[in-house]
Amino acid sequence: MIVFENVIKTYQNKQVVNKINLTIASGEFFVLVGPSGSGKTTILKMINRLAQQTSGKILIDNQDVAQVNTTSLRQNIGYVLQNIALFPNLTISQNAGLLLEANGVKRSERQQLVQELLDKVGLPYEQYGSRMPSELSGGEQQRVGIVRALVTKPEIILMDEPFSALDPLSRKQLQDLILSLYQEFKPTIVFVTHDMQEALRLGTKIGVLVNGDLQQVDEPQVIINHPANQIVSSLFNNQKITLIDDLIRTGLKETITENISFDVPHLTSTQTIQELATALYDYDYVIVDQHYIINQRQLLMYISKH
Ligand code: ADP
Ligand code: MG
Description:
By secondary structure, this protein is α/β, with parallel strands linked by helices. It has helices at residues 40-47, 70-75, 92-96, 98-102, 107-120, 125-128, 138-150, 168-185, 196-202, 220-225, 230-238, 244-249, 273-282, 296-305; strands spanning 2-11, 14-24, 29-33, 55-60, 63-64, 77-80, 156-160, 188-193, 205-210, 213-218, 254-255, 266-267, 285-288, 292-295.
């Protein structure tokens, strides 16, 4: 559990984080979303002490991070940035195993852990392990960055706009990847983005930050259906995102009965209508929130009315 207590951060007399109180539960996929300059990176960096708060406290599992030495603090916190900065003169597997090496893990064990994870993120060890970073695309390099952060099995992973520099397809693939790794390892993730759609897609909880103020912290559905104020609602409306949730609320769905094939895509109501359309291109119907069925006809009716 990560707790912010009255945390303020000031740079040269300019307050950029305004008295934040926030609790992030263990195992949460917490997304901090807001426009550029709102203080997201600063908040993230205060967790692993790359930035020092001006006042207030940050606790991890009831321990004040200011009291922990930074090396052991960071050993337990993975960190993934927008531009991952792999060492250009080290191979992919060496880059991926750097933190293991720093933690004193033996070479053979290191190799096994790295291999397992590289295979899992779609960079088969046999094929990629001995390549150099310059031989990888941007999306592939980000995958290595994710492996590097995950391979020590940290309880907390901080991610600062990790997919923002990628093309839409790679971004979608990496979002799917991080969701599946999250399901598998269940770390606590604090993920920063300026992209509302990404926030809704990934977060189990979303914190909306504007000008250093935390406007709302809630589940994605609640943020969409009950925005705390005008600032939150205009942020999400300006993105012109329409969620499957909107379609469900118009009544255009059926509830699952027993004899239904589950061999169809499963979506959640915080995914977009566009994602629904993509899924219905190949299937007659899909299941949403493990509860509703939506078919092509219902989607067409919805679109014809909006
Ligand atoms: P975000 O990640 O949401 O874009 P940041 O946390 O990077 O926002 O920045 C918040 C504000 O703090 C911005 O106005 C930025 O210019 C300022 N800021 C960030 N880092 C520093 C720094 N090291 N020195 C002075 N000002 C900074
Ligand atoms: Mg930032």
